[in-house]
Amino acid sequence: MTRIKLLIICLVLFSMPSKADEGMWIPALLKKYNIKDMKKAGFKLTAKDVYDINKICLKDAIVGLGSKSNPTTFTGSGSFISESGLVLTNHHTVVSYLHKHSSEEHNYLRNGFYAQNQQDELPAKGLSLARLVRMQDVTEKLLNGTETLSDIEKSRLIDKRAKEITVKAKEGNHYQTKVKSYFGGTQLFLEVYEIYRDVRIVAMPPLSLGKFGGETDNWKWPRQSADFGILRVYGNSNNESLKYSIANKPIKPTKHLELSLKGYKEGDFAMVYGFPGSTKQYLTAKAIQQIVQVKHYHGIKIRDAKMEIINKAMSKNEDLWLKYSDFMAKTSNSLLRWKGELRGIEKLDLVSLKKKEEEAFIKWVNSTKELKEKYADVIPGIEDCVARLDTIEKLNLYVVEAGIKGGNFVSFAGKFDMLNAIASRKNVNEKRLNKELRKLRVEASNFFNAYDLETEKEFLKVFVKLYDENVGDQYKPAPIIAARKKYNSDFNQYINDAFSNSIFSTKENLIEFLKYFTKEDVQKIKNDPVFDLCISYFLINMDMVYRQRIDIRREYGKYHNKYLQAIKEMKADQKIIADANRSLRVSYGNIQGFNDEGESYSPMTSLNDLVEKNSKNPKVYEVPEGYVDACNKAIKESEKSIPTCFISNCHTTGGNSGSAVLNAKGKLIGLNFDRAGNGLVSDYKFMPELTRHVAVDIRYVRFVLEHQFKADALLEEWK
User: Fold this and answer.
1) What interhelical angle do 350-365 and 378-396 show, nearest 10?
2) What's the CA gap between 545 and 658, in Å, rounded?
3) I want to staple 275 with a disulfide (CB 3.0 to 4.6 A). Which of 64, 163, 503, 588 is the partner?
């Protein structure tokens, strides 16, 4: 399809009401807004089967993945699949928890893991799961009587009321509660969650299967990845407080999903149910330009440099491969997503589309005196904030992405600032000093066991140079300016010399320094050239980036929320999609292929495709020993092709990783794990021609469990 034809299609779509397959919809509002369109798309159930507070329904089988410290801020999704607490999610959402158990002796990351019995299951330390018990529209309760208040007064009153509502909702139960804002604060919902804190790893495929094709296939289609992980929840039966958990007893969930092994065909209904992260469907043209020219341009430059260092290190030996696998996956995932978004933005000519949207908006605003008084300042206000954010967002990328998170060493060295502060006081608290020293000895041991010092030095060399080349002197840390002058911009020599004169020069040197530390040694920290460089990034961030960025973004947020409110008023007769905000959502559509760049793509892949990729490039498309033989045997014995993955036009984003993909009868057919190519721009604008999410077929999940792990007991439990 030519760019002109695609642009015409998108312009026509902009003038039409939102399509049923576009958007991530609030489950509690399906009956009001979506169920008729869902039925037209092929859905066989009712809105209450999807969400109901008075009876058990599909929403009771869906969980969000969070941390024990922040259990209702979700980073992924999952679903209960058995009466004994089994949870299905993605390999890539939980592999970091398995990584913590891995070693050269037990390389679960490379070889995979399967617990033969419940006693062998591994704790997913730090992971928590949350199930939405109910959500309630509290907009009127929170906003009533706030119309004439100032912004500060309104915010304080809403916060006070929200606290009262959440406290009341927790009375007599063990739930956690929060109030979430939708569509610029025009709609507010109370959300009540049950939290599960004892989560254990049951099964996870080898990395070569879970991420088949590695970074070569990431964010692409066709795919054959077995991107799944199986967990089990322990600790509380239904009606029992999580504070008084029953040790080693799996829970019996309120609801678990039924399995469908019948398959599907192109055109069949599909529904994704999970906790998507965030979308930004209502950004202005200037904001999109900033993403392209700042975030993508500089972010890609930084991540490309980071990946080059990681790949070089991982290729050296098995130890470094294991140490940097998780870091590589996180680095590469965002890098490839940014590149995909950039291609989609350019292909769609999104800046031009957004300008046309703004022209229509401004025309509407100017249509009456009342609207002009309410909304004439919105677009100018947004553009002013975006202009002021240009420099600060670029600086944020270099300070945080290239500096503090350039590798792993800066954040580690930054932990010594507390020791510096404690030991620098006139009257040193010896008890607190000793406690901090014990803590740092553990931190030091963990760091040097987890990472390679020479690789971390390489990160510093590359990113000090990159920072110097891309950031103005007024925003540079003093050590970088001094090093440029002293070493004539030879930052390799600068870092080498800095470490040769540092307490951080070796693991042994640092451990000895901490072991025999006295308050008089604080001067060694203050004068340490490596500590000086690392802490300078934090100081630049605090003095020149963090506060300023927060202030401007807060101001931007007020105008953006006002923009959303205006759009809702302008399109009062249409269904308006609320941006994803890490709350439970439903998206729906149909299993469907697509055409892109002159290529036609089927909506399904099979084991035959996996075997073919492996035979053509076994280094990239690596599989465990004997796996191809098992695949060929299964292909030969089967009368039909054995499925691996499929795509549909359901609208998804980050956070949907691990979301259940359901058929027209609400039965589990797949597990969402990715999006395809140019359709990544759907976070900013839905592209019906190209937007496709990628799911692993549930039959392939079971195939891997059967043929890779001989997991008969697990398959018997999950049926």
Assistant:
1) 150
2) 34
3) 64
- Determine how β-strand 604-606 pairs with β-strand 643-648: antiparallel
pLDDT at 1: 38
Q: Left, alpha or beta for 693 (phi > 0: left; psi -120 to 50: alpha)?
A: beta
3-state helix, strand, coil in the chain (%, to 5): 55, 15, 30
- Chain-centre distance of CA 511, in angstroms? 36
3-class state of residue 175 by DSSP = coil
- Range with the largest mean pLDDT of 21-35, 172-186, 362-376: 362-376
Q: Residue 112 contacts by C-beta under 8 Å, 6 or more apart in sequence? A: 203, 204, 205, 206, 207, 209, 210, 624, 708, 709
Per-residue model confidence (pLDDT) at position 2: 39
CA 250 – CA 577 distance, rounded (Å):
38
Q: Which class is 3-278+582-717 in CATH?
A: mainly beta
Under the phi-then-psi rule, with left for phi > 0, alpha for psi from -120 to 50, and beta for the rest, what region is 198?
beta
Closest of 407, 514, 394 to residue 455, by C-alpha: 407
Instruction: Please tell me the distance from the alpha carbon of residue 61 to that of residue 271, in angstroms, as a whole number.
Output: 14
Q: Give the type of residue at 53.
A: I
| Alpha helix segments (H runs only) across 426-489 | 430-450, 453-470, 478-487
Secondary structure class of 85 (helix, strand, coil): coil
Token look-up 């058995």 returns: 82
Contact partners, residue 49, CB within 8 Å, separation at least 6: 57, 58, 666
At position 325, the amino acid (one-letter code) is S
Whether 693 and 675 have beta carbons less than 8 Å apart is answered as yes
pLDDT at position 12 is 33
Q: Report the C-alpha gap between 196 and 254 in whole angstroms.
A: 13
Which stretches within 251-349 are classed as H helix? 285-290, 297-314, 318-348
Tell me, what DSSP letter sits at residue 244? G
Percentage, residues of the chain above pLDDT 70: 95
Q: What is the tally of helices (H) and strands (E) in the chain?
A: 30, 20
Tell me the HSE value of 568 on the side-chain side, using a 13 A CA sphere: 15
Q: Residue 271 pairs with which residues in a beta bridge?
A: 588, 662
Reported as a pLDDT band with limits 50, 70 and 90, residue 236 is low
Instruction: Please compute the mean of the pLDDT values over residues 597-621 and round it to a whole number.
Output: 95
**One-letter identity of residue 474:** Q
pLDDT of residue 141: 96
Longest dimension (CA), the chain: 81
Provide the b/e sequence for 490-508 (b: ≥16 CB within 10 Å).
ebeebbeebbeebbbbeee
Q: How many angstroms separate the CA atoms of 429 and 33, rounded?
A: 62
Break the chain into its structural domains and give their ranges.
3-278+582-717, 285-565
Distance separating alpha carbons of residues 26 and 187, to the nearest angstrom = 11
The first and second tokens of residue 197, run together, are 């804190």
What's the whole-number mean pLDDT along residues 416-430? 95
Q: Is the peptide bond before 222 cis (omega within 30 degrees of 0)?
A: yes
